[in-house]
Amino acid sequence: MRVKEMKSTSEIEAVWKHFQRQFGLHEEQLQKFKKYSSLLREWNKKINLTAITTPQKIIADHFQDSIMISKFIDFNTISMLADVGTGAGFPALPLKICFPHLSIVLIEVVQKKISFLEKVVEELGLANVVISSYDWRTFLRKTNYPVDLFCARASLSVEELLRVFSPNGVYHSAQLIYWASSSWSAPALAQPFISRQEQYTVDKKQRRYIFFKATSE
Predict the structure, then answer these.
(1) What would the mean pLDDT of 150-179 be, rounded to a whole number?
(2) Which domains, from first to last, does the chain contain?
(3) pTM recorded for the entire structure
């Protein structure tokens, strides 16, 4: 059993090292990701945060899936990112670790998840992170953050997300990126708002990023 455990630890460390090389992370960033993974597994025993609980799957299905978007967008041009229905903090907090200059708004209505997010932000020492407990429609109505980019990963329907582009809304000029499966098909309402699509692979699974922006009309 001891030999098996040591082998498993060695394999996990190899996965972490590959992850570090893949995204050019310095050691402090890697340690923050490891702490994040540890907190996620610890808190998941008390509240339902994710069905993914092994370090290897957390790295692939949460961390890599969150930050692969950096291959398709220059985050040096982004000042503030808002994450709609962030849950356990994906994709916003992994992106914050990779790009510390980002200001982050985490939109989450479930109090238990908010408590987890507060703990992660505190433990990782992340600055300029705001947690909003507003539901999506109330957020659009009552806030006025200088958001450049909205992200949505496994949260609301696209039809609901497109409310961000209401002509009279304060976020009309922002960009929206939606995490989609390879088989996702855009509803008719959404098609005029799609500016581009990018395919990527995580853990041998094909997925897509769908980029939305307001129509010129």
Answers:
(1) 94
(2) 2-212 (3.40.50.150)
(3) 0.93
